[in-house]
Amino acid sequence: MMPDLQPLLQAAVDAGVAPGLVAVAFDRAGCMSMASAGVRNLETKASMETGTSVYLASMCKVAVSLAALVLVEKHDFDIDSNDALAAVLPELKLGSGNACDRIFDGKDEEGAWKFKPATVGLTLRHLLLHASGFGYSFSSEEDASLVRVSTVL
User: Fold this and answer.
1) Which among 111, 97, 98, 113 has a CA at the least distance from the CA of 150?
2) For tag attachment on the chain, is the N or C end more exposed, with fewer CB atoms within 10 Å?
3) Dist. CA 137–CA 122, nearest whole Å
4) Residue 84: which H helix or E strand, with range?
5) 38, β-bridge pairs
6) Helix (H, G, I), strand (E, B), or coil: what is residue 126?
7) What pTM, to 2 d.p., does this model score?
8) Could you give the CA distance from residue 65 to residue 69 in angstroms, rounded to a whole number?
9) Mean pLDDT estimate for the chain
């Protein structure tokens, strides 16, 4: 039997860990426990609910990476294949005519961006290792307008 999560969440809210928390515990059989505590909005004091949508940011990377590596371990997905990745994300197929077909290659004398053809298709390994060459739009205005900004390792 799963312990009640609500008192644990409430204790964390009371300790100032966060203004509001939601937790779900599950296993292969399904949801074992779900609870919420605190508020989702400091101004309105609206209660945090188990159905409240929250911004996870980079926290979902761990779950997605784990799920992907389970598929690799079971031999259901080739971690080093552009074809396997493109079957799930067709826009990442090398030769598809999009930005994944070119790699940022510096700037010319006038400051204009130069590109060279990509010779290696992206793979799940590249994505998991942050070696795909994708830039983050929040890191710079230049990265926001580029898709693939560096050589794939």
Assistant:
1) 113
2) N
3) 19
4) helix 82-88
5) 20
6) helix
7) 0.58
8) 6
9) 84
